[in-house]
Amino acid sequence: MFIYNPPIDPILDIVHEDDEIIVLNKPSGLLSVPGKHEDHKDCLESRVQDSFAGASTIHRLDMDTSGLLVMARHKEAHRYIGYQFERRLTAKTYIACVLGIVKDDQGTVDLPLICDWPNRPKQKVDHEVGRSAQTHYEVIDRGDNETRVKLTPVTGRSHQLRVHMLALGHPILGDRFYGEGEALARAPRLMLHAKLLTIRHPGTKEMVTFEAPVPF
Question: Fewer Cβ atoms within 10 Å of its own Cβ: the N or the C terminal residue of the chain?
Fold first, then answer.
C-alpha cells in the first residue's frame, strides 16, 4: 500500500527566483499541488507559498517525477507563462531510464491517450476517443538491459511519457503505475527527470532556459 512520505531535505530547491517567477527543482515523491486527503496537503505549491505569498502553480509534474517546475509570483506572470504552455511555446526536455535496449537511436511515439477510468489516475492508449499525444525520443546510452533516453514531449498529456514508453515496449524503471517485475524492481524511484525548461520570461520578454542536474 502506498504511503505518502514526501522528502523534506531540502524543503525547497530553488533554481532561480526574481520578481516575476520562481523556478524549482522538485524532488521525486513530492506532490506539485495538494491532494484530496488531509495527509496529502504537503506539496511543492504550499511550501513555496509559505515563503512567497501569492505564488501560483502554472503547470505540474507527476509526484514521482523530479525536475524543473516554474511558478508565477503574480497574476500577470501566471497569465503570460500559462499562455505559453497552452500554445506549446515552451520547451521541455526529460531524461529517463527505461527497461530493455531501445533499438532505434531516435524516433517519435504518436499515440492518443485517455484516462483509464476504472484504474485512474492511470492513462491508456485509445485510438477512437483518445487525445492526440506525441513524444520524441533519442537514445543517450545503452547498458545492461536498460537504455537512457532523452524525451521531448510535443503535447502535455497526463502520464504521457510513461504511457508512451510503455507502448514502445520499454517501461520507465521504477514506475509504480505502469512497471512490473524487473522494470519496477530495478529502481527505487521513477527514473524520469525534467532536466531542461525553456520559457519566455514575463519581465524581460526574452527566452530563458533553466537546467536541473539529473539525480540518477
Answer: N
Cell numbers of 202, please?
A: 514575463
Give the rounded percent of residues in the chain with a pLDDT score beyond 70.
Answer: 100
What is d(CA 62, CA 60) in angstroms, rounded to the nearest whole number? 7
Query: Which active-site residues does the annotation give?
Result: 62
Per-residue cell: 178? 505502469
- d(CA 6, CA 4) in angstroms, rounded, equals 6
Decide if 89 contacts 109 (C-beta within 8 A).
no
Beta-sheet pairing, 192-200 with 66-72: parallel
34: its cell numbers: 495538494
The cell numbers describing 116, all together, are 483509464
What would the grid cell of residue 115 be?
484516462
Rounded to whole angstroms, the Cα distance separating 63 from 170 reads 21
Beta bridge partners of 113: 125, 131
CA atoms of 173 and 162, how far apart (whole Å): 10
195, 214 in Cβ contact below 8 A? yes
Residue with cell 485512474: 120
Helices (H), the chain: 44-51, 75-86, 160-167, 182-185
The predicted-structure confidence for 140-196, as pLDDT tens digits, reads as follows 999 999 999 999 999 999 999 999 999 999 999 999 999 999 999 999 999 999 999
